[in-house]
Amino acid sequence: MKVKYFYQQFISHISIIIVAFLVLSLIFAHYIDDLVYQYKAEELRSYGENILGELEQGREDPKQVLRRYSQVLSGRNIQFSLFNANSEIIMQSGRGTPNPEISEKVWQQITKGEPVVVKSDLEMFGQGVTFVLLPSMQNGELLYGILLASPISGSREMISQINQYLFYTVLVALAVSLLLSWILSKIHVNRIKRIQEATSMVSAGDYSVNIPASNFDEIGELAGDFNHMVAKLKASREEIESLENRRRQFIADVSHELRTPLTTISGVIEGLRSDMIPEGEKEKGIQLVSQETKRLIRLVNENLDYEKIRSNQVKLNKEEIQLIEVLEIIQEQLENQAAEKNNRIIVEAPNNLHVFADYDRLLQILINITKNGIQFTEDGTISLRGIEDDRETVIEIEDTGAGIDLAEIENIWRRFYKAEVSRTTNPYGEFGLGLSIVKQLVQLHDGKIEVSSEKGRGTKFVIRLPAK
Q: DSSP assignment, residue 425?
């Protein structure tokens, strides 16, 4: 059987309140009853001690003392009986005075000088009675005792009235509790219902849902955790979509890059096989096949490098490296390539300047950027500089080449960006992976790379690597 959470909350609240009211009512009624009887017993005991005190003094005749007190006690609706050591009645206040049979146990207490208080079922004028028996001792022997009795009708009436007021109070409190329980249950159920509705929206594919959260209670914290979960799911979905788009773009770009060299290689091989290429052009065709093959190998290697860096599979072996030596090695390696386009490579760095980096990866970074500068510069210079700083090593690579439009500067870090350029008018376009790898490697060194450029006036790359 399905029971709504609202009714579960409501019934549980009301059940707890009713049980609490019943327990408190019983305890309170019992406490009042005992309090009233205790007060009545103390009153009787006080009168009895006063009577026995005057009798023990012996200044007046016992009967005169009893007659005087009889008038006072009758006004308080209290009856008394005076008895001797033989349990014989000496004097009593009136005919209606009860004469209970004193048990052996009670009589032993009296003879020992111990007062006795009894809540008796014996009726006096048709009402229940409270008895107090007080002994008067002389030299350890019972001289006489006094028994005082008072009907408890007034006390019971007071208790009944208190219980009646208590009953009305319980009814009012119960009505208020019903209202508050209904309101609180409704609030809690509505909060849970909002989470339920939001969960349904998420399961339907809507990740824009957000519900109010707070640290007030567990439901508020649950709402916060739910929002955090939805944000994670949304980010994961966006990442999956991004990866899918990048996968499609990657396949398209790689297909384009592979098609050109493979077409060239296939054409040259077919020409050589069918002797369509003249004897004097065969060497040139073989050289072209070799160049395109190397181009394909470079493409594959760069893609493998890029994926290794992205998946954190590259481990750096950092060490203190003299920067001037690294820059001079790059100058020597690329000097011929620069000379083909009438370019000069200039190196400027202090002899004592060191950089804390992985040697092979640092060479890869600087060679990629320098090659990029050579490709887009004619009859110019490519400057490699090292600048000393207290907390980092700054490396600048600046060329006087074609430059980059400001709108396209951020795009140069994109994978295959230069491939897009090569498809149009750029005869020096490579595979567009070089600068992507450069940025990943710099970040792997906990460094930063910045680029500034102006169309027609060259480009400047600034690399900042933290010191050891």
A: T
Give 76's Cβ-side CA count (13 Å radius). Answer: 16
What's the predicted TM-score (pTM) here?
Answer: 0.42
User: Is residue 420 within 8 Å of residue 432, measured between CB atoms?
Assistant: yes
CATH 3.30.565.10 fits 314-466, yes or no: yes
CA neighbor of 415 nearest in space, from 239, 243, 241, 234: 243
- CB burial readout 389-399, b (16+ within 10 A) else e: eeebbbbbbbb
Report how far residue 69's alpha carbon sits from residue 88's, in angstroms, rounded to the nearest whole number: 20
DSSP category for residue 9: H
Per-10-residue mean pLDDT for the chain, 468 residues long?
63 77 78 77 84 76 76 78 78 60 73 76 53 81 80 64 77 79 78 82 82 73 83 84 76 72 83 81 82 76 68 78 90 88 92 89 87 89 88 91 78 58 38 70 89 87 90
DSSP 432: S
CATH code given to domain 5-159: 3.30.450.20
Is 131:120 a contact under the CB 8 Å cutoff? yes
**Domain regions of the chain by residue span:** 5-159, 218-291, 314-466
* Per-residue DSSP letter, 85: T
Distance of CA 406 to the CA centre of its chain: 44
In this chain, the answer to whether the domains covering 5-159 and 314-466 adopt an identical fold is: no
